[in-house]
């Protein structure tokens, strides 16, 4: 069943090409903004972290666009469940749709990061601080997974994309404001210059939250009438 779902959703990607292109353009724009910031600063690890993981870009760029793209690509058909004889097909479809934008973001950063470091004169700094960059990128992926599960669950419960977006943006705004005020925020704890024990604990909590949200999503799909 898993292979059939992946094959089906991969074929459907053609219909969502504009949606994913929008997300890719936003990520490319943020990469260029980070490059511009790096070019204007003296090479340092703090400057590198601040440019690659600017919290305002994540708050206003990555997460809202991710939410919009996910909402525009979530399509549930009762025929799929009837064909596979199980509603688990909806879970697999949802996971696939959540992962595609995340994969796009990671691929763009992987392609752009080394040329960007060389052109900005940050290559030596990057060589020393890449483990921290990698850990932050993994944390950001976990954050998007959390928001993806929240988005799918809220949409299934409300059947309203606008309401779903408002709810997710509200959660995003609340955690962002907590981070700006210097308080633990979970979703934005990785943007701090130093990754301490609290960030490690936050990552564990985040993984637990993803598992919990996944279980809730599974329960909602099992009980929801999808027409």
Structural class: mainly alpha
Order of helix and strand elements from N to C terminus = HHHHHHHHH
- CA radius of gyration is 19 Å
**Overall average pLDDT:** 86
Largest sheet: none
Number of helices: 9
**Which spans have pLDDT < 50 for at least 5 consecutive residues?**
none
User: What portion of residues is helical?
Assistant: over 70%
Task: Please give the alpha-carbon distance between the first and last residues.
Answer: 21 Å
What best-fitting shape do the alpha-carbon axes yield?
Answer: globular
Measured by DSSP, the beta-strand proportion falls in under 5%
Number of strands: 0
List key phrases describing it.
single chain; 227 residues; mainly alpha; 9 helices; 0% strand
Question: Could you describe the 3D structure shown?
Answer:
The protein is mostly helical. Helix content is 81%, strand content 0%. It has nine helices and no strands. It has helices spanning 2-12, 17-39, 45-52, 55-73, 78-84, 88-120, 123-158, 161-180, 197-223. α6 (88-120) runs antiparallel to α7 (123-158). The chain is globular, with a radius of gyration of 19 Å. The relative contact order is 0.13. The model has no long low-confidence stretch (mean pLDDT 86).
Brief digest:
The protein has 227 residues and is mainly alpha-helical.
